[in-house]
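Milestone 3.1: sequence recovery, worked example.
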């Protein structure tokens, strides 16, 4: 049985992830950092609502029928995923220039990916800290397709749209991960930490936890390079979770960062 400080360390890490997501929400995808200071003098120092105007939004270029960008020329026979299958009632915001990705979200609110993390945490809690693929998929699909929506977001990353386009065409849920130009994206790592913390605190060996995480990642982000990053990320999270209080967390992060790009 892990000691209480280790459990508290895991809880604090997860709470911090939700806080960080809410803090970053109003300036997601601001490609020019100076735009942050133009809209928020002094930068982000507290929770802020999503602004009406996004200076570098390209949401209007993204496909609402699948992952990736909208097709140019030729007929697209796929039905609308955004509006009909997921993000119900939100498609009307997708065709507007400079529309904020998180349109209408108030200060302190979490994004869709964080809501997916919450859904996974509930599944893990219901299964005594153990990960089960099909239970996660059921919760993910329920969250994304609910009407009225169970989350406040306007935007869904490419991997969500690709997954539900494949699901809508009849593929088994565990084979719906789509490959697009940005499959190897950081969004794939959002739900990894809950699996690592829950399974390791339940006593599952690290090697088995790593495989759970790789299998989980492949459900939505089937990419070999991202899988390598994920493997190193799991190692980092494990070392941070069980590190000696006297050890240097920054040194651990630095060492794993170098290892992940083959510098160590």
């Amino acid at each position: 049985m892990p000691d209480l400080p280790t459990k508290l360390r895991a809880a604090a890490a997860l709470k911090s992830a939700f806080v960080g997501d809410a803090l970053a929400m109003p300036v997601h995808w601001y490609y020019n950092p100076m735009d942050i200071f133009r809209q928020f003098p002094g930068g982000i120092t507290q929770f802020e609502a999503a602004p009406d105007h996004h200076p570098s939004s390209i949401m209007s270029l993204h496909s609402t029928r699948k992952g990736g960008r909208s097709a140019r020329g030729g007929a697209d026979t796929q039905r609308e995923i955004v509006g009909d299958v997921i993000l119900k009632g939100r498609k009307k915001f997708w065709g507007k220039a400079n529309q904020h990705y998180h349109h209408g979200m108030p200060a302190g609110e979490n994004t869709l990916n964080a809501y997916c993390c919450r859904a996974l945490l509930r599944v893990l809690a219901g299964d005594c800290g153990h990960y089960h693929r099909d239970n996660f998929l059921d919760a993910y699909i329920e969250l994304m397709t609910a009407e009225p929506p169970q989350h406040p977001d306007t935007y869904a990353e490419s991997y969500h749209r690709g997954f539900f386009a494949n699901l809508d065409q009849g593929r088994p849920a565990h084979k719906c991960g789509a490959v697009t130009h940005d499959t190897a994206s950081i969004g794939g790592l959002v739900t990894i930490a809950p699996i690592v913390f829950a399974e390791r605190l339940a006593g599952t060996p690290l090697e088995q936890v790593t495989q759970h995480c790789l299998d989980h990642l492949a459900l939505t982000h089937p990419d070999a390079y991202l899988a390598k990053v994920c493997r190193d990320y799991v190692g980092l999270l494990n070392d941070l979770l069980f590190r000696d209080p006297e050890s240097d967390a920054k040194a651990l992060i630095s060492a794993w960062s170098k290892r992940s790009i083959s510098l160590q």
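The chain has one domain: 4-67+80-260. The mean pLDDT is 93.
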